[in-house]
């Protein structure tokens, strides 16, 4: 089989998925509404828009330009299908639990119905939310009967941007302020967006407070490229000899770019050129050249900053000199799939030396990868990470169920084939 061509030139990636969800949800609480360019083209964000339409929110989409505005009071949503999207289910649960008179049932696909929901349901109930659901409200479908919530302070047991954001969105229609304290900072796009739009907000260390706000101000801006999508190109370019690739207009929010810090420690040859902020988020161009990587250790303190990039880090670790250890990442077991098991199984099938641990992996780098059949487990990030592994495998790598890539990055596999010839 022919070798993959080096990655050269420039590339842009789809709009940030986390920020797209938030822009749509914030727009739904604003009569003026939001208008954003470069909205994510993934299926997850389309699920958020569909749910909002069912709630009577005005949603217009032309290509990657999306307008969302509140069109009178929210309607009874009936059955809201979040598809595969944890962010849709959890953030909507927060937003809807504080809107009196609106009753909805939130559900999702088989993967999402297995994922834990008590992490949002429990704190929302402490504010008075009336939520019920499968397994005592720990799983979807969840019924949400919107009610006037009290304010309060909630200390999260884990760093989770989804839980934090669900509480902040609920707080916008509560009777008093809602304060959320995290053990470690998770992605802070909700805080940045509310602040950018001029919604009163107080941040102090890892605590953030929002205040009741009947009608949010609107705004118009362009969303940055998704760092989590750029990450596949960053690792691919680092692994392919002769590569020199620039990814333009990427979100460089430090709560998202933990992978860059870890890869730099591993010897990544890269430059970061800051650009203009967009919607309060730092952006820029990341240029990556092929690199000779060495092993590193990643523990729980760094995990929230690269949680979605860990499958990809596992791929990079198979090509690094020495033994890489990832700890404190048990959260990966309850993502779209059990990502610890999925990557251990997939990479081992390709000849890598991966030991699965309850909360991560121990990966001995330097074993050449061979071809083989592997499973994405229907998980977009696993599918794309295994496709990157396939670039450096000696034989052909066959990944099942690759359509799931459309959850976050519909054009990825075509673009990868076009640029690398594999
Ligand atoms: C997200 C937060 C993260 C991340 C997910 C998107 C968000 O989840 O894994 O893909 O948009 O808030 P947690 O907050 O549960 O860690």
From TrEMBL:
<feature type="binding site">
    <location>
        <position position="160"/>
    </location>
    <ligand>
        <name>3-phosphoshikimate</name>
    </ligand>
</feature>
<feature type="active site" description="Proton acceptor">
    <location>
        <position position="308"/>
    </location>
</feature>
<dbReference type="GO" id="GO:0008652">
    <property type="term" value="P:amino acid biosynthetic process"/>
</dbReference>
<dbReference type="Pfam" id="PF00275">
    <property type="entry name" value="EPSP_synthase"/>
</dbReference>
<comment type="similarity">
    <text>Belongs to the EPSP synthase family.</text>
</comment>
<feature type="binding site">
    <location>
        <position position="381"/>
    </location>
    <ligand>
        <name>phosphoenolpyruvate</name>
    </ligand>
</feature>
<comment type="function">
    <text>Catalyzes the transfer of the enolpyruvyl moiety of phosphoenolpyruvate (PEP) to the 5-hydroxyl of shikimate-3-phosphate (S3P) to produce enolpyruvyl shikimate-3-phosphate and inorganic phosphate.</text>
</comment>
<dbReference type="InterPro" id="IPR013792">
    <property type="entry name" value="RNA3'P_cycl/enolpyr_Trfase_a/b"/>
</dbReference>
<dbReference type="GO" id="GO:0009423">
    <property type="term" value="P:chorismate biosynthetic process"/>
</dbReference>
<feature type="binding site">
    <location>
        <position position="115"/>
    </location>
    <ligand>
        <name>phosphoenolpyruvate</name>
    </ligand>
</feature>
<comment type="pathway">
    <text>Metabolic intermediate biosynthesis; chorismate biosynthesis; chorismate from D-erythrose 4-phosphate and phosphoenolpyruvate: step 6/7.</text>
</comment>
<dbReference type="InterPro" id="IPR006264">
    <property type="entry name" value="EPSP_synthase"/>
</dbReference>
<feature type="binding site">
    <location>
        <position position="335"/>
    </location>
    <ligand>
        <name>3-phosphoshikimate</name>
    </ligand>
</feature>
<feature type="binding site">
    <location>
        <position position="86"/>
    </location>
    <ligand>
        <name>phosphoenolpyruvate</name>
    </ligand>
</feature>
<dbReference type="GO" id="GO:0005737">
    <property type="term" value="C:cytoplasm"/>
</dbReference>
<feature type="domain" description="Enolpyruvate transferase">
    <location>
        <begin position="5"/>
        <end position="416"/>
    </location>
</feature>
<dbReference type="InterPro" id="IPR023193">
    <property type="entry name" value="EPSP_synthase_CS"/>
</dbReference>
<dbReference type="InterPro" id="IPR001986">
    <property type="entry name" value="Enolpyruvate_Tfrase_dom"/>
</dbReference>
<keyword id="KW-0057">Aromatic amino acid biosynthesis</keyword>
<feature type="binding site">
    <location>
        <position position="339"/>
    </location>
    <ligand>
        <name>phosphoenolpyruvate</name>
    </ligand>
</feature>
<dbReference type="GO" id="GO:0009073">
    <property type="term" value="P:aromatic amino acid family biosynthetic process"/>
</dbReference>
<feature type="binding site">
    <location>
        <position position="17"/>
    </location>
    <ligand>
        <name>3-phosphoshikimate</name>
    </ligand>
</feature>
<keyword id="KW-0808">Transferase</keyword>
<feature type="binding site">
    <location>
        <position position="162"/>
    </location>
    <ligand>
        <name>phosphoenolpyruvate</name>
    </ligand>
</feature>
<feature type="binding site">
    <location>
        <position position="308"/>
    </location>
    <ligand>
        <name>3-phosphoshikimate</name>
    </ligand>
</feature>
<keyword id="KW-0028">Amino-acid biosynthesis</keyword>
<comment type="subunit">
    <text>Monomer.</text>
</comment>
<dbReference type="GO" id="GO:0003866">
    <property type="term" value="F:3-phosphoshikimate 1-carboxyvinyltransferase activity"/>
</dbReference>
<feature type="binding site">
    <location>
        <position position="17"/>
    </location>
    <ligand>
        <name>phosphoenolpyruvate</name>
    </ligand>
</feature>
<feature type="binding site">
    <location>
        <position position="162"/>
    </location>
    <ligand>
        <name>3-phosphoshikimate</name>
    </ligand>
</feature>
<keyword id="KW-0963">Cytoplasm</keyword>
<protein>
    <recommendedName>
        <fullName>3-phosphoshikimate 1-carboxyvinyltransferase</fullName>
        <ecNumber>2.5.1.19</ecNumber>
    </recommendedName>
</protein>
<feature type="binding site">
    <location>
        <position position="18"/>
    </location>
    <ligand>
        <name>3-phosphoshikimate</name>
    </ligand>
</feature>
<dbReference type="InterPro" id="IPR036968">
    <property type="entry name" value="Enolpyruvate_Tfrase_sf"/>
</dbReference>
<feature type="binding site">
    <location>
        <position position="22"/>
    </location>
    <ligand>
        <name>3-phosphoshikimate</name>
    </ligand>
</feature>
């Amino acid at each position: 089989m022919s070798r993959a061509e080096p990655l050269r030139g420039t590339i842009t990636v789809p709009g940030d998925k986390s920020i797209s969800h938030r822009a749509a949800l914030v727009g739904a609480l604003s009569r003026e509404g939001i208008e954003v360019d470069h909205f994510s083209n993934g299926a997850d964000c389309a699920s958020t828009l569909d749910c909002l339409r069912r709630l009577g929110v005005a949603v217009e989409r032309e290509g990657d330009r999306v307008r969302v505005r509140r069109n009178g009071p929210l309607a009874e949503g009936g059955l809201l299908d979040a598809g595969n999207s944890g962010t849709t289910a959890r953030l909507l649960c927060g937003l809807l639990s504080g809107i009196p008179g609106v009753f909805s049932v939130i559900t999702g696909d088989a993967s999402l119905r297995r994922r834990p929901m008590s992490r949002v349901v429990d704190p929302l109930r402490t504010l008075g939310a009336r939520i019920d659901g499968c397994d005592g409200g720990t799983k979807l479908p969840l019924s949400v009967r919107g009610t006037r919530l009290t304010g309060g302070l909630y200390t999260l047991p884990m760093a989770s941007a989804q839980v934090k954001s669900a509480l902040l969105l609920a707080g916008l229609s509560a009777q008093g302020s809602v304060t959320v304290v995290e053990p470690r900072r998770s992605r802070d796009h909700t805080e940045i967006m509310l602040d950018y739009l001029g919604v009163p907000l107080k941040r102090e260390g890892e605590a953030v407070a929002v205040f009741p706000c009947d009608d949010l101000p609107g705004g118009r801006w362009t969303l940055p490229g998704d760092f989590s999508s750029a990450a596949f190109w960053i690792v691919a370019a680092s692994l392919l000899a002769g590569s020199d690739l620039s990814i333009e207009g990427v979100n460089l929010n430090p709560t998202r770019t933990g992978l860059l810090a870890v890869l730099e420690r591993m010897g990544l040859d890269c430059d970061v050129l800051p650009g203009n902020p967009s919607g309060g988020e730092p952006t820029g161009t990341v240029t990556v050249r092929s690199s000779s990587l060495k092993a590193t250790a990643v523990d729980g303190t760094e995990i929230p900053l690269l949680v979605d990039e860990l499958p990809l880090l596992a791929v990079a670790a198979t090509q690094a000199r020495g033994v890489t250890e990832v700890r404190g990442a048990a959260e990966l077991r309850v993502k779209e799939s059990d990502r610890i098991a999925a990557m251990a199984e997939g990479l081992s099938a390709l000849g890598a030396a991966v030991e699965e641990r309850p909360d991560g992996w121990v990966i001995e780098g330097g074993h050449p990868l061979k071809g083989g059949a592997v499973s994405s487990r229907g998980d977009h990030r696993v599918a794309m990470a295994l496709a990157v592994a396939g670039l450096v495998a000696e034989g052909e790598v066959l990944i099942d169920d690759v359509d799931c890539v459309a959850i976050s990055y519909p054009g990825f596999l075509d673009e990868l084939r076009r640029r690398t010839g594999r």
